[in-house]
Amino acid sequence: MNKEVSKSERTKQFIIERTAPVFNEKGFAGTSLSDLEYATGLTKGSIYGNFENKDQVALAAFDFNFNQISQYIKAQILATDNAIERLLVYPKVYREFLNIPFLKSGCPILNTSTESDDTHPQLRERAANALEFWKNSIENQIKRGIQRGEITQNTNSTEFAVVMMSIVEGAIMQAKVTNRSKELHLAMKFLEKLILQMNN
């Protein structure tokens, strides 16, 4: 029994990992069943034997894509203890956005929210929750920095988090549309200046 469950979970994870980049690149509406079959090498019956429908695959794929980015950034943040250096991880990572294999197809939050804001409530909610998680993470880093005397006391953590996220997502959008990194690098350089201005 346990072996069967384990096999089923392995298959589900395989489907998620193979379809995640497809959903991120093509979006929910643009991803067809044949795309899923091609990406996984599995039949419709095999895919839908593990997921109720395309919606469930898409939701799991979004979670996977967002978790990949979160874990990638988290590992670099935890490599340093200083609050300013931790915040500088964001412009450092996103400056190389187009060169990081699993990010090449774009930011899952931006891609999903743009497509699903009026068409897919569940995906929109996932994207909204991801944005809130990201905002809280930045806010917590700033609050921690203030407590440790590394960031100036009058810094508004919520305001900075919202502006920082807007700069990152706007720069990514420009980079994806133009397929060049010039504007992305300019935006990340500006973001670095903003972060360094908080240095106590």
Spell out the key features of this protein.
76% helix, 10 helices
Structure description:
The protein is 76% helix and 0% strand. It has 200 residues and is an all-alpha fold.
Low-pLDDT stretches are none
Identify the overall geometry.
Answer: elongated
Count every helix, treating DSSP H or I runs of 4 or more residues as helices: 10
What's the end-to-end separation, in Å?
A: 58 Å
Q: Tell me the β content.
A: under 5%
- The gyration radius over C-alpha positions equals 19 Å
| Biggest sheet features | none
Query: What value does the average pLDDT take?
Result: 87
Structural class: mainly alpha
Please tally the β strands and state the result. 0
Topology:
Elements: H1 2-30, H2 33-40, H3 44-48, H4 54-77, H5 83-87, H6 89-95, H7 108-116, H8 121-147, H9 157-178, H10 182-197
Outline of the structure:
The chain has ten helices and no strands.
